[in-house]
Design a protein that fits this description.
- The chain is an alpha+beta fold and 100 residues long.
- The protein has a single domain (4-95), classed as Arc Repressor Mutant, subunit A (Orthogonal Bundle), CATH 1.10.10.
- The chain is built from four helices and five strands.
- A three-stranded antiparallel β-sheet has the order 3-5-4. Strands 1-2 form a two-stranded antiparallel ribbon.
């Protein structure tokens, strides 16, 4: 039986899905590796290509990288590890300066 992690969605009244813990851990590590702590951050649209290079192919074979990147990104925002850069469009992200 696979272990799952309940994700958090930062949207008011929204519930995040439960996802496979191995995929969650791999995507979290990939996101934190490609999103800088300072500067202008990275665009949300660029995330799938950036993280794909950092993910174990076998673990994500047949899976939607975009869906996992979006789900884990929202969870990390809700937990305070990522933040959206204010006042810019399209959406840009950077790691929170308040958390490790």
């Amino acid at each position: 039986m696979k272990t799952t992690i309940p994700t958090i969605n930062p949207g008011r009244g929204k519930k995040g899905p439960r996802i496979d813990s191995a995929r969650y851990d791999a995507m979290k590590a990939a996101l934190l590796a490609v999103i800088p702590r300072t500067g202008e951050g990275v665009t949300f649209a660029s995330l799938p290509k950036l993280v794909e290079r950092k993910l174990p192919r076998a673990l994500f074979r047949g899976a939607s990288i975009l869906w996992y990147a979006t789900t884990v990104k929202l969870d990390l925002e809700a937990r305070g590890l990522l933040q959206r850069v204010a006042g810019v469009s399209p959406q840009r992200l950077r790691r929170s300066r308040l958390r490790p």
